[in-house]
Write a structure and sequence with these properties.
It is elongated and about 50 Å long. It is mainly beta. The protein has an 8-stranded antiparallel β-barrel. The N terminus and C terminus are likely disordered. Strand 3 and strand 4 form a beta hairpin. Helix content is 10%, strand content 51%. It has 2 helices and 8 strands, in the order H-E-E-E-E-E-E-E-H-E.
Length: 179
């Protein structure tokens, strides 16, 4: 993944197509997400992701995401995505620094796919996506009514909203095919 990131970074820097995604303010209640997007052209991009969760299951996840922008409109793009990654839980809660063995699930690996919409406002954007993710853990979580798989890092159904800044405007892609 490092080699892909370096190759993607070199291509993106030559075209200056980079976007920084930051999780929405409502998402900050349970997590903080940061993504760096490198666009190869108008249809293909790679994202490097970091997510920090707090609350019942404090943990972190890192990974990569591939996007295929397939329907281009004047102010935004629809896309399909797939993601792979991993991470670990810390066993410590945000407000109580004592170790909680019930919140430790160990190493985590995930994979998923979905679709979304990237809405452009010149150099700023709004990104909304939804999909399904499968998560494996080494230690089954002792949770409260399945919260780990509903709201936590292992959530199966994913709905995300992000804001961000992009170094490009929509103008470089105005001559691409529209439907």
């Amino acid at each position: 993944m490092l080699v892909t990131g370096i190759a993607c970074n070199t291509t993106a820097q030559s075209r200056k197509d980079f976007a920084l995604h930051i999780s929405s303010p409502t998402g900050l209640l349970s997590k903080f997400r940061l993504k760096g997007e490198f666009r190869f052209d108008s249809t293909h991009s790679i994202l490097l992701c970091y997510t920090q969760y707090w609350g019942i299951y404090p943990s972190f996840l890192t990974g990569g995401e591939y996007r295929w922008y397939h329907l281009h409109k004047r102010h935004g793009d629809n896309y399909l995505y797939c993601e792979l990654g991993g991470g670990s839980s810390t066993g410590y809660t945000l407000f109580n620094q004592d170790y909680n063995p019930e919140s430790f699930v160990g190493p985590t690996f995930y994979g998923g796919c979905g679709m979304g919409r990237h809405i452009n406002f010149s150099h700023f954007f709004l990104d909304l996506n939804g999909g399904i993710r499968v998560t494996t853990v080494s230690n089954y979580p002792h949770d409260y009514f399945g919260t780990y798989y509903v709201f936590g890092p292992g959530a199966v159904v994913r709905i995300n909203l992000a804001f961000g800044f992009q170094t490009f405007t929509h103008k470089p892609y105005t001559n691409r095919r529209t439907r």
